[in-house]
Write a structure and sequence with these properties.
321 residues, alpha/beta, Rossmann fold, eight-stranded mixed beta sheet, 10 helices
Length: 321
Amino acid sequence: MPVHPDLSAFLELAEFGRLTGKSQPMHTLPVAQARADFERSSQILDPNPPGAVEVQVLQLSTRDGGVLDGRLYRLASTADQVLPTILYFHGGGYVVGSLDSHDSVCRRLALSGEFAVLAPAYRLAPEYPFPAAVHDALDSVAALKEQAELLHLDPQRLVVAGDSAGATLAAVLAITAANHPEQIALKPQAQLLFYPVTDMSVQRASHRTYAEGYLLETDTLAWFYQHYAGSAAERQDWRASPLLSGQTAAQAPAYISLAEYDPLFDEGVAYAELLKQGGTPVQLTVEQGLSHDFLRMSGIVESVDDIYRRALQWLVTNACG
């Protein structure tokens, strides 16, 4: 279908900014400026996130003796309830993105009161290249297990989730739990993957069809990958490209939500098929008329609220009810 009219208007403004020199593609910017611009975009895409959600600041221990910042989101009315947890990893190509840039996403996932949402601030490239983010994701699971009782979280009802590169980290955790259970502290009961990166090693037709003009650009993906996984060997590692994991043991049920206008569309479809072939229950949804990063667009596209509703309803019905 055509680009959603609300999104289309936003894309036209973005293109006008580029033509007039007021904005530049992310891949042409220094990393620090790209990060700052990405943070500012959250105020445009979703300026009024739900305020009814309580946020607790946490610290999560890592294997090297360090700590990651984290945030726990839940409704105040559930403070004394032991809730299942969505462990949520933000997007941003492993280079940009933060707890702040995806604060609205975590608030909206916690708004129903059915789940608590734990968001770790995993380390970013180029300062911390592959596989640092993977190690941080695994360490976040271990930290959740350690703190679950204190935080009133049910460690046996874990959902791994994320968008874009964050969805890749969630997918890696699900693969690890299925194939290498000794390497992960908890076994996820479900995975929510929104427009994941599943294969850094090649470009597919959607990389060319939606290369420019739909927020995420193919050249920006290449810029991200160069910072995070600079060598061909790293990009072919299944921890960077889950599609290359091959046939794995059946994993936790997966809800995969893709954007129609996204360079990553084809590899998302291919990953859903790989999971199905391995016996993993998969719910694949395609958000027609939308582009990459739609989870952060509640302020400009009204139908995004329904995307959250459907994903959470699937979780309650199929995995962590």
